[in-house]
From TrEMBL:
Region (Disordered): 398-457
GO process annotations (BP): chromatin remodeling; translation
PROSITE patterns: ABC_TRANSPORTER_1, ABC_TRANSPORTER_2
Compositionally biased intervals (Basic and acidic residues): 422-439
The organism's place on the tree of life at top rank: Eukaryota
Keyword check for ATP-binding: yes
Pfam families attached to this UniProt entry: ABC_tran, Chromo
Molecular function in Gene Ontology: ATP binding; ATP hydrolysis activity
InterPro entries noted in UniProt: AAA+_ATPase, ABC_transporter-like_ATP-bd, ABC_transporter-like_CS, ABCF, Chromo-like_dom_sf, Chromo/chromo_shadow_dom, Chromo_domain, eEF3_ABC2_chromodomain-like
Domain ABC transporter residue range list: 62-380
Protein's recorded name: Unnamed protein product
Subcellular location: Cytoplasm
Keywords, comma-separated and alphabetical: ATP-binding, Cytoplasm, Nucleotide-binding, Repeat
Amino acid sequence: MNLLTTWMWNKKLAYYKGNLSDFVQHKPEAKSYYTLTDSNVQMHFPPPGILTGVKSNTRAVARMSNVTFTYPGAPKPSLKDVSCSLSLSSRVAVLGPNGAGKSTLIKLLTAELVPDEGTVEKHPNLRIGYIAQHALKHVNEHKEKTANQYLQWRYRFGDDREVLLKESRKISSDEEKAMMEKEVDIKDGRGPRQIEAVVGRQKLKKSFQYEIKWKWWLPKFNSWVSRDLLIKEGFEKLVQKFDDHEASREGLGYRELIPSVIRKHFEGVGLDGEIADHTPLGSLSGGQLVKVVIAGAMWNNPHLLVLDEPTNYLDRDSLGGLAVAIREWTGGVVMISHNSEFVGALCPEQWIVENGTMVTKGFKEIDQSKFEDDGGNSEQAKAAADMAKHAASLPHIGAHHKSHDDDSPANIKVKRKKKKMTRNEKKLQEERRRLRHIEWLSSPKGTPKPVDTDDEE
């Protein structure tokens, strides 16, 4: 049987004998239209930052437990009794018919929505890069800004402003405002008093404690209160908001928020530098806006990337570039897409959402241990080494917050007989040295340089 392939180029239609394979032999430049990995567009994502206490990339860093959610006025729940987990190695495709609750699931996971029942948990330092279904959702109020100016606005004060706008971080309802008027007794002999703000955080065994500023009390009377106690007393949003601040500050410490660096970052995701610097967002095409949003989501080195219909607006070449970037990236990925070729090539795990329920296919085992410090981060050390090396030459954002990561009992150094180190042990040793150097650079002037105790190992 004779086969014909048609090809349009420069507004002219040509016919070639044979199937697609035969055609590509005549027109190699057309291969990218049929094979995602042969795209002519190059995209590269910055590696995720270190996530304290996550030793294995299969450990759960975010999870939903028995979550039920109903939109106001809806006759039945959009999602009912849904449970799932994500790790740094996750590659998940969320599938299902339109209106099944796929986007609702993503919004609950990223804290854009608050569940009616159940819990949504994440590692305190976890950063999530979120790309919504409609790119205009992110940039609709910034049409007069260039892409470069938009990124400066979003991260100017050391936080991701879009995270702070999430519903789960707002203290808005009458019930929550009344909670802020509640008096708390932490059994320190000073009696019950009202919380004004959280102003600091440090390690406490395998969790955290927070520095609390009290209403009507001078700063010298600030107190350290454990995470568990604050959550027990109902101040979960206050804790989550400060966790987001610390996670964002940590992620932004590796690069300077200046036009030249931002331009290079945009070029890394396939957006021309001249367009990023000089063209207002309101004049960009849908595909270009998607690249702006991708760059914005990846600026603070997230650990999880969540994409809601990433194939919208992107042409074939850009879609291929995105596929390669996702495949190479070392963080976790969750995506909603109706493009079966795209998700099939990237996501071995599937969450099927239908009629308010969710089932998993191709499930990869995830360690469901509680989010806590287990003394290292061997899986991510290689990915983070380049960022840490670069960070040593930059001014550290939020340097007045002293890191207490080395306070963990797991990091206490013990003298022992020298032995030949494995390759992974050498990588970990180098990473610890880099982190100590970064902390020393951010400490007050005159602080003695730390002694390299790794030589004793």
